[in-house]
């Protein structure tokens, strides 16, 4: 064990021996060191990620979250993966924000099935003052049920972040999506720095950060390492890191993209675990098309959170019976 040095967090003092060179588990990771990790022989990579996982978590427990779209479609952004964008012709129809009783019913059902966190998403570029007032009321509904409340509403100002914190918000999700170098290939209606600014506003308001990205958008292995590099070097890194596997929707520009090899997805999970050892690494979008074996490898690699429910905003997700069956086979408990 190393002694603490400047800029290191006390929880991240352990080292891993990789090719006889120590890599410190702190939140200052070079891109080269993360590329070295992701290029390890598969068994070596999983062995190391499992070691890190066991240092910080019970390897036989996962956290359950539920995601509900409280305002669907009509988004002015042009994210190439998103069927809710007004720029693309998809089957998604724009809707008004859900009422409090609709959200309460959904949250109650989620709690009954074991979810400890209830996440609400709205298809906005950024919410207006009146939107924040309505969302604040929905947060209070969730908190009355003694659940953690999470929101993903697009870009967020410092003022809005503080108002949501006052309402009781526990987590705010705002994904980086991809690397700065490939960002303009995916979205042109905002810049990368705006995503970082939102995360700063959330963190400064005292709200936990949930931020990850999407893989399978045609990127290289090194570019996947670049995404993890961005996340792991946030100060501090996110408490929750959702890793999404692209769900291809007809009508969006990324429809028809070559699918990512499942073992490449597992590698990404493993590297996220090693570089962000105390974060909840969540299997998010794309699980519906994953085999049980792939999901089991992801849990072995350090994933310890999933979204449960039949839909993630507008795309499919495994039904609860299927998830229960898998978790029972793996002897994994939910928290």
How is this structure best described in words?
With 335 residues, the protein is of the alpha/beta class. Strand 12 and strand 13 form a beta hairpin. The two termini are 30 Å apart.
Overall SS class: alpha/beta
Tally of contiguous helical segments:
11
Largest sheet: 10 strands, parallel
Work out the strand percent: 15-25%
Share of helix, binned:
25-40%
Give the overall form. Answer: globular
What's this, in brief?
The protein is an alpha/beta fold. Helices cover 37% and strands 17% of the residues. The protein has helices at residues 31-38, 42-56, 100-112, 129-144, 158-167, 183-186, 192-204, 221-232, 262-275, 292-301, 320-329, and strands at residues 15-18, 21-24, 61-71, 117-122, 148-152, 171-173, 208-210, 213-215, 240-245, 280-283, 305-307, 311-312, 315-316, 333-334.
Question: What is the strand and helix layout of this fold?
Answer:
Layout: E1 15-18, E2 21-24, H1 31-38, H2 42-56, E3 61-71, H3 100-112, E4 117-122, H4 129-144, E5 148-152, H5 158-167, E6 171-173, H6 183-186, H7 192-204, E7 208-210, E8 213-215, H8 221-232, E9 240-245, H9 262-275, E10 280-283, H10 292-301, E11 305-307, E12 311-312, E13 315-316, H11 320-329, E14 333-334
Parallel strand pairs: 3-4, 3-11, 3-14, 4-5, 5-6, 6-7, 8-9, 9-10, 10-11
Antiparallel strand pairs: 1-2, 12-13
Helix pairs in contact: 1-8, 2-9, 3-4, 4-5, 5-7, 8-9, 9-10
Write a concise keyword list for the protein shown above.
disordered N terminus, 335 residues, 11 helices, alpha/beta, globular, single chain, 17% strand
